[in-house]
Amino acid sequence: MSIQLSRFSHDVDEDDVDPRRIRSRNRLLDAAENLLRNGGIEAVTIDAVTKASKVARATLYRHFSSSSHLLAATFERLLPQITPPPPASGTLRERLIELLARQATLFAEAPQHTTILAWIALGLTTGTTGEGSDHPCSTSVLRARIVEQYRKPFEAILQSREVRDELDDFNLELVLCQLIGPVAFARMTGLCAITEQDCVLIVDDFLAARGRDARKSDTCDSPSRASQLRQTMRH
Questions:
Q1: Closest by CA position to 145, among listed 80, 60, 211, 50
Q2: Where would you tag: which of 19, 39, 91, 201 has the fewest CB atoms within 10 A of its CB?
Q3: What does the angle CA 45 – CA 112 – CA 144 come to, to the nearest 5 degrees?
Q4: What is the pLDDT of residue 195?
């Protein structure tokens, strides 16, 4: 029976269960991870990885079709895992704050995660002439993996009927951008460090915009607010 060792490996056959091939692949990824940590994306080249791992170039190409393919597999290995709060733990607000604070901590403590997001956002590859043909799917598959990683914890919180009744209709992808976007942008640009109190403000702003009760209150208040505004303008 065939197995799949990674989303970024070639299509595998029964030879891939050979422990020697598994060991060679792990040596390649160990070497690539070490190069990435010490030298950044540009350090992860085919020559550098084969030299550091002592694995033949031909063997590397049996596992990875290009340096960008190898880099994507290395990034996948480094992705920190995000787990949602327990389903019955606290109010919607409390659980969203807890989840967002966990993600902000991961950004702060895992600089490689920031590198991954930057690489994905820019669509960068490191493949050069002679290093094998680049595979655009490397970036797209890793991007899908990251989206899935962030999406699942929020789905675990937001998919219940009670939460759907509490919030207006929403698009989950837009919710991810609204809640995680500020955390990712702040970390990638270095503008500021997101604190737990910042996470509280982000979640409160989101709930104020999406909550059914808040929307009803705004609708009910809008005539009186408009009247007050007209009176102010007359004076």
A1: 80
A2: 19
A3: 85
A4: 93
The residue with greater pLDDT, 95 or 82, is 95
pTM above 0.85, yes or no: no
Residue 129, domain CATH: 1.10.357.10
Whether 96 and 205 map to the same domain: the answer is yes
Tell me whether residue 40 is in a domain.
Answer: yes
Dist CA 143 CA 149 (whole Å) = 10
- What letter does residue 87 receive in the DSSP assignment? T
- Separation in Å, CA 171 to CA 57, 112, 146, 235: 45, 29, 18, 43
Show the CA angle centred on residue 24, arms to residues 19 and 25, nearest 5°.
100
Residue 55: pLDDT above 90?
yes
In percent, the amount of the chain with pLDDT more than 90 equals: 24
* Same domain flag for 27 and 141: no
Closest CA to 75 of 51, 110, 27, 23: 110
Q: Provide the residue type at 9 as one letter.
A: S
Over 60: is that where the pLDDT of 3 sits?
Answer: no
Distance CA 171, CA 173 (A): 6
Give the single-character DSSP code of 80: P
- The amino acid that residue 129 corresponds to is T
φ/ψ of residue 234, rounded to 5: -65, -35
**What is the Cα–Cα distance from 114 to 106, expressed in whole angstroms?**
9
- 29 token code pair: 């990824």
Q: Is the per-residue pLDDT at 92 higher than 60?
A: yes
Q: Are 11 and 3 in contact (CB under 8 A)?
A: no
pLDDT at 25: 93
